[in-house]
Amino acid sequence: MNTYNDYLKEIEERKSQGLHPKPIDGAALLSEIISQIKDKDNAHREDSLHFFIYNTLPGTTSAAGVKAKFLKEIILGEAVVEEISPAFAFEQLSHMKGGPSVEVLLDLALGNDDAIAQEAAKVLKTQVFLYEADTERLEDAYKAGSGIAKDIIESYAQAEFFTQLPEVDEEIEVVTYVAGVGDISTDLLSPGADAHSRSDRELHGQSIFEHNKEMQKELLALKEQHPDKRVMLVAEKGTMGVGSSRMSGVNNVALWTGVKSSPYVPFINIAPVIAGTNGIAPIFLTTVGVTGGIGVDLKNWITKKDADGKTVVDKDGEPVLEQVYSVETGTVFTINTKKKKLYNGGQELKDISEALTPQKLEFIKAGGSYAVVFGKKLQTFACKVLGVEVPQVYATSKEISVEGQGLTAVEKIFNKNAVGTTPGKTLHAGSNVRVEVNIVGSQDTTGLMTSQELEMMAATVVSPIVDAGYQSGCHTASVWDDKSKANIPRLMKFMNDFGLITARDPKGVYHSMTDVIHKVLNDITIDDWAIIIGGDSHTRMSKGVAFGADSGTVALALATGEATMPIPQSVKVTFKGEMRSFMDFRDVVHATQQQMLKQFGGENVFQGRIIEVHIGTLTSDQAFTFTDWTAEMKAKASICISEDETLIESLEIARDRIQIMIEKGMDNEKQMLQGLVDKANARIQEVKTGVKPALKPDADAKYYAEVVIDLDEIAEPMIADPDVNNEDVSKRYTHDTIRPLSFYGGTKKVDLGFVGSCMVHKGDMKILAQMLKNIEGQQGKVEFNAPLVVAPPTYNIVDELKEEGDWEVLEKYSGFVFDDNAPKGLARTKYENMLYLERPGCNLCMGNQEKAEPGDTVMATSTRLFQGRVVKDSNEKKGESLLSSTPVVVLSTILGRTPTMEEYEAAVDGIVLTKFKPSQKQLVI
């Protein structure tokens, strides 16, 4: 087979899409290209040179290995290419980011030719992506008396790879582009339906603004009008980047507005500038830091106050906003990185110190956070070898310690897992901390990007610090189409080889497990003191503290076993009163958001903070319903405070589920899963014996705010409504409009119901089965007036339901039951009025495979109500996704409309919904 000719055919195909040649990552193709370069008479030689120099991916791709080897031959004079001098070959190596290129540079630096060695050393001094094999070679050479090795290590000790970089520009001129009014979801920047193309950065870039070509043209025109300025993408009267972390969203913004990272690496841009009236969603802001970008909290609209300082409200009781300054498209601002101010001409508009902390300025200077993380590790290595103190090159980690002040739960976890802090110093919120990470999860629509990031940073194996890493298959579970068949096996093989537990077995031994990633991570977290990083915004565990992250941060955690972040402030949530028997715990979750906003005059005190929820008596499955929703509350993360007995029960459930994974054959050679079982047993014993009870905050801990939820106020089911027709565009699709069932008067038409996603657990499936039996008993039959799509989150739930007889009930009433031996190859476009039992996984919640029909009103248990996520608009009607409990969803599809309270109470009669009583025990120390 002629690989190059196949590549030329692909190039022609891409031309028809307005795309350039795809970057090369394969050894076979690049080897053929090199052969053509060596043949001076080859008709393809000129193009081959261009592809070799400008279109080959760096890092640990197989193509990078071939390229590095050929560049070494040129430097040693073993190959002569007129267009690539030895000096240019060194320059090429300097842009290849580790792996084979570092190996070649070490070969040359530690070789016998002194002149070549000196040149190689110069390049090595600029590199930071070195791993143990590389540093061991340097250390061995140094101990053997190599002067070159000594020189390189001394340079690393001084962190010259960082100090000799250009300083950040004092003034950065930006021109605004308002991408939307109200919260901007990352779906707008990187649509879920285009998840399959994320690893093809140029192709995926065409999806920005959900393929809105007019917006794309406006952005290009703005760039042409202001060629000397950067474009700042703005969420007017909203928060930028809500929803998912989406590295692909930041990549798209950077591709359209950012700076080229290297002249020799195509379509990888860095340093985007984004902003929002209400700032940037926490996980998205982390992603911006990965690329050395800037995220600005504009606060250009504020709550209007009357003469007495009280909030002015409109006729609906909503706070009235007034504009402080305009950010309309085309407005020119200046970001002053020294004064840390935002200016319009000579007028100071706002202090933006939070966007330009010393650490964030380092990310900007280094071109992203990776280089800083690896640089610090490399400097520490060098100083240890030389036996010297680490010089203060990087900004000191901010360490805040308040004498006599107790610790919140998250402060305790961060203090336990902190790395490189002042010995013996207790750290409080606001401190910037490097922490070791226990559990790392990668999901399948961002996993290919994570694998690319790992290749880019030349990582080849999961860090030994990490207790477990898991690669899911849930986001592509619903439809096994050609895109999935092409991408997912390749991803699973890469991650399996890297050392993760993978949902699909590349060897085909165990049954594919398309379980929702958050549920799996919740199960494999076996320590309430753990830190979890996951490639999805709903990485919100009910044990430990979990942070949703972009694909790059996930890659960094897998490669280094570390993450760096500030210790967030916490908001304490406690409960009083009694939960009515016909209420579901989902109603408590929604009421928490509603009551919090009411208590604080519309201010979302959860945003960007840890929600420390004193849930006490709910096991991890049920408690997860609360922690999962905290992503929609815009919280940074959440922590469940449990009674000892509850934690023990949760850990036993987790341990037993991990054991099932082992029995299925999912453990790897390092017995990662068995290690978790052993750790779970050890933690259970610690709690049982009182050696180390369940995590609890100190009684004198300090919180940003304390919220008390009155269960007595929750008199009927609560629904999160996208409020699609609100006159104020900024108040649509916010997750903050929480309405009681009676608001709809039993008349709102429902076109589709969905029970599934990470928000449901086994109890929801049992409630569904019991409701169907109830309705049949009351009405003689079960007849659906709207389709009901059901997707259990995990296979173990399906197995347990089968053992307990509930699955048989569900099958009885269903018109479709998934078949793993013949998975769907196409997404549904039409639904009949019946029950669909779909394969475990994300299904409709993701919006990347299955969707409701355009314009539908969907009642769902899922988490996302953003425009176009679950349902698109039609020409006649806006699609809307209302979020509620399982009983409300089920009954809405039976009736084809929202139920009345009388109908609802009758349907759940005799069914035990979530039992929850506030803990009567002390949940503080």
TrEMBL record:
Molecular functions (GO terms): 2-methylisocitrate dehydratase activity; 4 iron, 4 sulfur cluster binding; aconitate hydratase activity; metal ion binding
All copies of domain Aconitase B swivel, residue ranges: 181-407
Protein's UniProt keywords contain Metal-binding: yes
Record flagged with keyword Iron-sulfur: yes
One Gene Ontology cellular component: cytosol
UniProtKB keywords: Iron, Iron-sulfur, Metal-binding
Domain Aconitase B HEAT-like: 6-162
Any Pfam family: Aconitase
Limits of the Aconitase/3-isopropylmalate dehydratase large subunit alpha/beta/alpha domain: 411-896
A biological-process GO annotation: tricarboxylic acid cycle
Coiled coil: none
Protein name: Aconitase
Protein species of origin: Aquimarina spongiae
